[in-house]
Specification:
This protein has 260 residues and is mainly β. The chain is built from no helices and 14 strands. It has strands at 4-7, 10-36, 41-48, 56-59, 68-70, 73-99, 102-117, 128-146, 151-154, 156-172, 187-206, 210-213, 217-232, 242-259. A hairpin with a 2-residue loop joins β5 (68-70) and β6 (73-99).
Length: 260
């Protein structure tokens, strides 16, 4: 959207793009008794955005924003924000199992946010301009067996959590600048790119029950977190005074557990 406020010679405008994704998914078997043959199996699987290229994406291209104008001072603001938050779980709880087959409880998914402002040309001779891009990819992924006092007899048991989380924020400095404040010989330009990934992932077997496993028992958590904040073609030019400021901040926080 491009809101515009005008008062005399004073004008203020901003191009704003916002993408939000909030997803919650659960697969479960709870409070029952099951029997399986030697060739059989019991699976509780939750896949969320598995194989997707992205989940939340904003991208602004070819936009020449209207600005704040006051005498020789004008302003332009481009803002792109992408937020993705996913909760994905697979649960086997309070289930008594008898047999020699396999038991699998698995989660697999993605939580990706991409925000982009590619390079554009501006023709303004004077102004203040700011590009702001922010991407945040959060996810909580859980695979769990809660025995709740029950006995599980099986040939093999696998509890597995797999995940990918990405925050990608990129903005570019155009050849003529994103915008500026020109007072006499003073020019100021600014770009900001922020990317943040926050992940909590776990695979576990808990409870006061018992396990009778003749084969493999696997509890596994594995994932990839990727956070990128980038400003292309950044410049610092002092030429009677011209200053360009570019800031890029990327952060990644992950809590990952596998336990019994």
């Amino acid at each position: 959207s491009t809101p515009l406020i005008s008062a005399g010679k004073y004008k203020m405008a901003a191009n704003v793009l916002l993408a939000l994704l909030n997803a919650e998914q659960k697969a479960s078997i709870e409070g029952t008794a099951l029997t399986m043959s030697a060739n059989g199996g019991i699976s509780v699987i939750s896949n969320l955005n598995k194989g997707s290229a992205f989940t939340a994406k904003t991208e602004m291209g070819g936009v020449l924003p209207v600005g704040i104008e006051l005498a020789l001072i004008s302003g332009k603001v481009n803002i792109a924000i992408a937020l993705a938050d996913a909760v994905n779980s697979a649960l086997l709880s309070g289930v008594a199992i008898a047999g020699a087959g396999s038991v699998a409880v698995k989660t697999d998914g993605r939580s990706d946010a991409i925000a982009g402002l590619p390079a554009i040309s501006t023709a303004a001779a004077a102004g203040i301009g700011i590009n702001i891009v922010y991407a945040k990819g959060n996810g909580t992924y859980t695979a769990q067996i809660d025995t709740q006092g029950k006995t599980i007899k099986a040939g093999s048991i696998t509890v597995e959590t797999l995940y990918t989380a990405t925050a990608d924020a990129r903005t570019a400095q155009p050849t003529q600048g994103i915008g500026s404040i020109n007072i006499s010989l003073l020019t100021i330009k600014a770009n900001y790119a922020g990317a943040d990934v926050g992940i909590k992932a776990s695979a576990s077997i808990i409870g006061s029950g018992s396990l009778d496993v003749t084969g493999a028992l696997i509890i596994k958590t594995e994932g990839t977190g990727y956070s990128l904040a980038q400003v292309d073609a950044s410049i610092v030019d002092i030429n009677g005074v011209s200053v360009a400021t570019n800031t890029a901040i990327a952060s990644l926080s992950a809590q990952q557990k596998a336990f019994i």
